[in-house]
Amino acid sequence: MIEKLVTRLSGPVAEGIALLFTRIALAGIFWRSARTKVEDGSFLTIKDTTFFQFSDAPFNQVPILNGDLGAYVTTYLEHFLPLLLLLGLATRLGALGILGMTLVIQIFVFPEMAVWWQTHILWVAMALVLIVRGGGLFSLDRLVGQRLG
Questions:
Q1: What is the three-class DSSP state of 149?
Q2: Residues 6+ away with beta carbon under 8 Å from 103
Q3: Which of 1, 7, 72, 143 is surrounded by the most beta carbons within 10 Å?
Q4: Long-range contacts for 52-58 (Cβ within 8 Å, ≥24 apart)?
Q5: Domain segments of the chain: what residues?
Q6: CA distances from 74 to 26, 52, 81, 86, 117 (A)
Q7: CA 84, CA 89: separation in Å to the nearest integer?
Q8: pLDDT in tens, 4-16
Q9: pLDDT tens by residue, 50-100
């Protein structure tokens, strides 16, 4: 009885559901953050306050990606990478991008250890699961993989 349960819980359907929810959860975090950076009612018109935020501390501590460039890159990546995760398309690449963004935020923007343990460790854990396991059964990655053999 226990073996049957373990077999079902470790099968592709259960794993696919877990990976789908992981993709949705991680994508949602970054999508909501992206939407705070753009004008209400627009898709990608970046707010003046976003440009100001990236030229002011602590965001100006990020090497290369500070000021206007940081505002553009961050806003566009925070829109694009969650879409990849939601679709399960290039899931590992999307999760790797989000992992990189999380590490930049942790190291340069909010280096306090409290933020790491409260929030960022969860983002890192979800991203690592997706990098290691991929999009799962319910992803476009799976469909593309089947088509390509």
A1: coil
A2: 124
A3: 72
A4: 58/108, 58/109, 58/110
A5: 13-148
A6: 16, 14, 10, 18, 23
A7: 5
A8: 888 888 899 999 9
A9: 999 988 877 777 888 888 999 999 999 999 999 999 999 999 999 999 999
